[in-house]
Every structure is written in structure tokens, then in C-alpha cells.
Amino acid sequence: MPRIALPSLPVSGLFGLAKPSGPTSMSVINDVKILIAQSRLFVEVDKLEKSKGQKVKRKHTRGGVKIGQGGTLDPLADGVLVVGVGKGTKKLSEFLDCTKEYITTCLLGCETDTYDSEGARIRTAPWKHVTREKVESALAQFSGEIQQTPPIFSALKMDGRPLYEYARKGIPLPRPIESRKVTVHALELVDWKGTDHQYRWPEKVFSEEEKKAMEIALKGAEGDVSVKDDLDAGAEVDVPTAFILKMKVSGGTYVRSIVHDLARSLGSAGHVVTLSRSRQGRFALDPTEDVDLGCVPWEVFHRASIDPGDADEEGWTEWEREVISRLDVMNT
Fold first, then answer.
1. Contacts with 51 (C-beta within 8 Å, 6 or more apart), sequence order
2. What 3-state class would DSSP assign to 92?
């Protein structure tokens, strides 16, 4: 095994982590921090000696190692999560506005409050008229510089109140949700699943009271709004159509909104059932450029959290060597 060349220890830097679908980004970061706080790669040896036997605190405290992430992923999403350690945390803001790439699966016929499969059904609509050719033809209107309106069920605030609070409590919006300019550099349909898949609409359904509250909230800014199903009786027993999109977008782009708006433009409804961030800046799941850096699989950290394993001849455990091989070291 080749020797690892590093500047003087400990180091600061950035590395990519391949987050799995399921846990929150914060829980992933907290689990990784426990390992980082006990590694001579990032912590001075004398401090490690003093902290032996002490429980590592999950939250950053004065004097502890700094760790953060450069753009959160929803629990549903998997893929690139950029992690900064030490002085690397000062570079994380660069990854909020950088170009990102995603692969997402759209399931037609149903809208949810969160625009993805984690939410509840709020509206159903016909989907059988939607063909691959119609989807491909519609993609052009969602490419280039576009105006995008964030979903009402989001944490964005209006007059100090989260948008989702207006929707859930039936409080009229004081004004329309402000759209934002984003850039979709590339958007393509890469796989037409049709009905050959295991995805289904969420079982949880908005009650009539919840729909009414949402209508009241939107009515305050958009006039008469109706949230109702538009599906033929018996159609729910059929398997809905699904397809996969690949996109390259600017920072601040809502992938779920692209799927939602695309489905509506096709005279249907749709939501995200899978979402993977395949690239964030120079960090990628499948590096293709010389400057690209790959991501450490989550399984590596999970194994280390149970048993770090034996160290190699240089004193590095498996997880440390995996991080070093993908680490962008910050100059001090």
C-alpha cells in the first residue's frame, strides 16, 4: 500500500461523503464528528491524550474540532455531501452557490405537500396521456434561466413566519411567494420506467380540512385556488408512470419544483420518489475530470463507528485512509 504524503498534522480540509437515503444530513455529520474528534489526522496529539476516556460531544463546542457541511440534503435524498473540517469550514459557503448535478425519479398522477414521497397526497390527476415524447418536448421550457417559485410547504419565511405555517394553519399569504431566478444548465430524460417499477403514491392523504387551509393560504396571494382531485374513478388501482431525469443546475434550484412544475405542464401531477446529488462543485460520486474528487462511502464511516479496525503500518485506520485519499487539504 503506497505511503500517504501529508503536510504537518493535524490538517484542515474538505472531503465528499456519499450520504445514504434515510438519515438527515445533520445526523450524518454528527456521527462523522465522533470519529474526526478522535483522529490525529484532524486533532493535535496532546489534545487526543487529554481527551481519552471522555465522551465526544456531537455539537461543536469551544476548543473542539470544527465540522460542517456545504449544503444539506433532505432525508429522502442521497449523494454528495461536502464536509469541512477545521479551516475547511470557512470554504463551505462556496458550495451553496456552486453548480450541482442531480438524478431524480418522477412519479406521475399525484402531488404531495412536500413535492416528494415523504409528504402527503394533496391532489391526483390523469397521467396515462403522458408519453416519453411529450416529456422530452416539455423539457425545453425548464432549461436555461428560469423563474422558479418555492413550494408553500417550505421553511422559507414571509414576514417572519415559515411558509408551511401559513399553509398548515390556513393563514392567508400577505403576498405571492417571490420567485427566484435559477439556471438549469442541462436537463434530460435518461430513463423511461413507464409502469415497470415498484413506486406507489404515498398512503397518507391530506384531509379536507388540510386542503381547505392550504386553499385559504394561497387565496391570500393568488386569488381563487382549488386543491381537488381530477382523476377518474378506479384509476388509483393502476400503476402510475415513472421516469428519470438528470440535470445540472445552479445553486438555489429546487429539483422538486422542477418535477412538480413539469408534471403540471403536461396536464398531470407528479412528485419526486428518488433524488441523488451526483455532483457538487468538484466533488462527485463518479469523478470524470482531473480536478474531481470522489466521495467516501457512508458504509466506511458506519463500520468505523462500530469498530475502527486495525491501523496500517502508518497508523491509519480504514476510514482515515479513505478520507485522506479524497481530501482537499487547506493550506494553513
1. 37, 38
2. helix
In sign, the C-alpha dihedral spanning 240, 241, 247, 253 is negative
pLDDT grade, residue 1 (50/70/90)? very low
Q: What is the biggest distance separating any 2 CA atoms in the chain, rounded to whole angstroms?
A: 70
CA distance 201 to 324: 42
Q: Grid coordinates standing for 269?
A: 401531477
Tell me which residue has cell 501529508: 6
What pLDDT score was predicted for residue 232? 63
Query: What would the pLDDT profile of 299-313 be if each residue is shown by its tens digit?
Result: 999 999 999 999 999
Q: d(Cα 103, Cα 190) in Å, to the nearest integer?
A: 9
* 3-state SS class at 25: helix
Residue 180 has phi, psi (to 5 degrees) of: -130, 150
The HSE-up count of residue 110 (CA atoms within 13 Å, CB side) is 29
* Cell output for 98: 456552486
CA distance 272 to 200: 11
pLDDT score of 95: 95
The residue length of the chain stands at: 332
The SS3 call for residue 104 is strand
Sign of the torsion angle spanned by Cα atoms 14, 329, 42, 325: positive
Whole-prediction pTM: 0.91
Mean pLDDT of 65-91: 95
**Pair 82, 72: CB distance under 8 Å:** no
Residue pair 31/38 in contact by the 8 Å Cβ criterion: no
Contacts of 91 (CB under 8 A, 6+ apart): 14, 70, 84, 330
Question: What positions carry a catalytic annotation?
Answer: 74
More reliable by pLDDT, 51 or 21: 21
Phi then psi for residue 111, to 5 deg, are -105, 145
Determine the Cα–Cα distance for residues 73 and 66; give it in Å rounded to an integer. 20
Q: Where are the alpha helices (DSSP H) in the chain?
A: 25-36, 45-51, 132-138, 163-169, 208-222, 255-265, 298-306, 318-324
